[in-house]
Write a structure and sequence with these properties.
globular; binds nicotinamide-adenine-dinucleotide; two-stranded parallel ribbon; 13 strands; Rossmann fold; 7-stranded parallel β-sheet
Length: 353
């Protein structure tokens, strides 16, 4: 596609959306529209040279404005968070169906060239995720449907809508099932953060406070894989431009227990903590990994960034954020990546939402 066509990132004020906007701009895309419901000072990256719009994409009229003139759309906007959020906000998660429905209708009406939808590994049948000793999830394992209650049902339904908009209206839709994405410039406190960021924050708190204990949700034996943001950006763009009509896994297949994730962060932080297991806290499924056979076959590529390497960068960023916020040295929340320029007036010193 021409780098002069308009690319729209819905949810551009969020973690993945912010990185995607920065990445597209760094690649030389000249017309990027980034749309999010949050005020600009809460966007992780609010970049110069981009048309930044604050709009509620649950509203059909706003979706028409967002999609107008677009060549490509990345639909990432959703009301979501880590396990602590999605297990306690099922209705809110399901209401993202309004965003997905209206964005598809508006994209169809605007004659958009290509439409990307970010689905999730939470669509997979829960019966396939009962043991820590996992068999990695293949794309076919989403059916018969028994996804994560609330959030997962909405994602599965919206995947199906993408399929039927493609079949019935000839809209080029492509779907990726993201598995746990992590990296800098994302949520690390406040209740919506996910395990990698939460671990970094807890380690930092323990280190700075001198209280060398850590609370772990569950028994620490749950298994997961975590994909670094750079792999997510590359895979999403490859999937959008591919001929893969069915949803594809986009995740790392480097499986770790939560205890091993803590080991990694302890090593990075240079500290050993006493672990307290909270068996009543939300912990999600017992085991989950991404089977990357299909993406490897179809794209000749799969995520490969090692967890240790990605966590090193993530820890460093969260450490700096933590120090800026809590050590009295006020600093910007949004730290622009290399080559990016953050609007000065849109910098926030306070992480609150
Ligand atoms: P995020 O919460 O940082 O970003 C989502 C953005 O959508 C937020 O900035 C939010 O303000 C915006 N949004 C919510 N409601 C909106 C509305 N009504 N109108 C406009 N904007 C709205 O989350 P993220 O981690 O960047 O995730 C992006 C997408 O990827 C989401 O669809 C999510 O479900 C999916 N996903 C993420 C992960 C992950 O590990 N991060 C895993 C699986 C799927």
């Amino acid at each position: 596609m021409s780098k002069d066509q308009l690319v729209v990132v819905a949810g551009g004020g969020g973690f993945i959306g912010g990185h995607l906007v920065a990445n597209l701009r760094d690649q030389g895309y000249t017309r990027i529209r980034s749309v999010d419901i949050k005020p600009f000072n809460e966007w992780y990256q609010c970049l110069d040279g981009v048309e930044n719009l604050q709009m509620d994409l649950m509203d059909l009229g706003n979706c028409h404005k967002a999609c107008k003139g677009a060549g490509e759309i990345y639909q990432l906007a959703a009301d979501m968070g880590g396990m602590g959020f999605i297990e306690t906000h099922k209705a809110e998660c399901m209401l993202s169906v309004l965003i997905n429905t209206h964005m598809l209708m508006a994209a169809r009406d605007a004659g958009v060239g290509k439409y990307f939808y970010s689905s999730s590994a939470c669509v997979y049948n829960a019966d396939k995720q009962t043991s820590e000793d996992v068999v990695a999830l293949k794309e076919a394992d989403a059916y018969p449907a028994q996804p994560e209650d609330g959030y997962g049902w909405e994602k599965l339904f919206s995947e199906r809508m993408c399929r039927h908009f493609r079949e019935d209206f000839n809209l080029h839709t492509r779907v990726a099932r993201f598995h746990n994405v992590y990296g800098p410039l994302g949520t690390w406190e406040g209740g919506r953060e996910k395990a990698p960021a939460a671990m970094c924050r807890k380690l930092i708190e323990a280190k700075l406070s001198g209280d060398h204990t850590i609370e772990i949700w569950g028994d620490g034996k749950q298994t997961r894989s975590f994909m670094y943001i750079d792999d997510c950006l590359k895979g999403s763009q490859m999937i959008l431009h591919s001929d893969c009509l069915e949803p594809l896994n986009l995740g790392s297949d480097e499986l770790v227990t939560i205890n091993q994730l803590v080991d990694i962060v302890e090593e990075i932080a240079g500290i050993k903590l006493k672990r307290n297991y909270n068996l009543d806290a939300p912990k999600g499924v017992n085991g989950r990994n991404s089977d990357n056979t299909m993406i490897q076959e179809r794209l000749g590529w799969a995520p490969s960034i090692r967890l240790r390497d990605g966590m090193e960068k993530t820890y460093k960023w969260i450490y700096d954020e933590y120090m800026a916020k809590y050590k009295g040295k006020l600093g910007p929340r949004a730290v622009a990546p290399k080559g990016a320029h953050v609007h000065k007036k849109e910098l926030s010193v306070e992480a609150g939402g």
